[in-house]
């Protein structure tokens, strides 16, 4: 499961957990990128190239993206713990049964995961 493209900032490709809406075109970018943009002389919307009049905090989008990021993180944690418990890496097919990636790649990812608090 990947973070939906519409939740990513056009400029930095990070999830817009701190989103702003560009006036008047209503495209969205993240707040850090908006701040970086304000320090430049020319203000153009990175999405539609239109003129930027101002930035408005988009709380609804910020909350939605934060929620989605949380859900996906939980889903990935569940997926990884499932790997460990069922030892799916030992499948004879040579690739992980859940993710479809190679066993090696999955193992590396498992080892990067911090111990669960549960
Ligand atoms: Zn950004
Ligand atoms: Zn725009």
From TrEMBL:
Gene Ontology terms for molecular function: zinc ion binding
UniProtKB keywords: Metal-binding, Zinc, Zinc-finger
Keyword hit for Metal-binding: yes
Compositional bias of kind Low complexity: 91-101
RING-type domain mapped to chain residues: 9-49
UniProt biased composition (Acidic residues): 109-118
InterPro entries referenced in this protein's UniProt entry, alphabetically: Znf_RING, Znf_RING/FYVE/PHD
Disordered as annotated region, ranges: 86-118
Top-level taxon in the UniProt lineage: Eukaryota
Keyword GTP-binding listed: no
Listed name of the protein: RING-type domain-containing protein
Organism: Bodo saltans (Flagellated protozoan)
């Amino acid at each position: 499961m990947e973070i939906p493209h519409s939740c990513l900032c056009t400029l930095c490709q990070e999830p817009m957990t701190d989103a702003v809406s560009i006036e008047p075109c209503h495209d969205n970018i993240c707040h850090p990128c908006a701040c970086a943009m304000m320090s430049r002389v020319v203000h153009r919307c990175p999405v539609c190239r239109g003129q930027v009049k101002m930035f408005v905090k988009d709380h609804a989008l910020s909350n939605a993206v934060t929620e989605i990021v949380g859900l996906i993180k939980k889903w990935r944690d569940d997926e990884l713990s499932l790997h460990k418990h069922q030892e799916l890496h030992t499948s004879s097919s040579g690739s992980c049964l859940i993710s479809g990636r190679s066993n090696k790649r999955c193992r590396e990812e498992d080892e990067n995961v911090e111990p669960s608090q549960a």
